[in-house]
Amino acid sequence: MRFEALSVFPEVFDAYLGASIMGRAQRAGIFSFEAHDLRDWTHDRHRTVDDAPFGGGQGMLMKPAPIFEALDELSAEGLRPRVVFFSPCGERFDQRVAERLSTEERILFVCGRYEGIDERVYTLADDVLSIGDYVLTGGELAALVVIDAVVRLLPGALGDELSAVDESFSSAGLLEYAQYTRPASYRGLDVPEVLLSGDHARIARWRRQNAVERTALWRPDLLDGAELSDEERELAQRVIDAQEGRGEL
């Protein structure tokens, strides 16, 4: 899989994508990444990518011409990329969007800066995404979030092919179950006995129940879209009622 980014700060990607799982996956050829400097498509001696907005207002906007010209050139190189922009107006990025993007062969992220991007540029987008209801300095961090989430889904990226399946949001839309490691007892806090039992069937049942309980406790908004049995929905409701002081577990 090929990722690319169009940015006025292309150097910010190197450290993160060269380390840990991302670095190993790149070295193994599971994905490739290239950052393009948007200033390479400017035509003045100052390499200007921004200008004042029509109608007045605070800040500067990214000009349309460098982005249009960059995408014209980059799209002419082999397979046309899927072009992804970031905006508060965009589709909220979640695990299902990551799974959808993981089927693409080439993705190009356009990373905004300053006060935003000239609205005409969004006509080039295949996807406009939002990673949350807050403001970032630029789109580079958002692109890294999406790349990380997508790469983890690529075969071989995690080593253990079941790792991505068991993670939060991947297992029937629930948060992942609680996990523990040695020692079995620490400062009066004990690992649940069932996890020490060696009984894999019991452990699987406990993990499923724990995932339901944790989701009901921390992210009840996910329950509407989760794949739950009637018994599990009753368990989730008991957790919610207990949390709100309306009942007991």
From TrEMBL:
Localization in the cell: Cytoplasm
Free-text function comment from the UniProt entry: Specifically methylates guanosine-37 in various tRNAs.
Pfam families hit by this protein: tRNA_m1G_MT
Protein name in the entry: tRNA (guanine-N(1)-)-methyltransferase
Keywords, alphabetical: Cytoplasm, Methyltransferase, S-adenosyl-L-methionine, Transferase, tRNA processing
Species of origin: Thermophilibacter provencensis
Top-level EC class: transferase
Gene that specifies this protein: trmD
Record-stated family: Belongs to the RNA methyltransferase TrmD family.
Residues bound to S-adenosyl-L-methionine: G112, I131, G132, D133, Y134, V135, L136
EC number: 2.1.1.228
GO terms, biological process: methylation
A GO MF term: tRNA (guanine(37)-N1)-methyltransferase activity
Chain segments annotated as coiled-coil in the UniProt record: none
Assembly mode: Homodimer.
Record-annotated tRNA methyltransferase TRMD/TRM10-type domain positions: 1-223
Enzymatic reactions: guanosine(37) in tRNA + S-adenosyl-L-methionine = N(1)-methylguanosine(37) in tRNA + S-adenosyl-L-homocysteine + H(+)
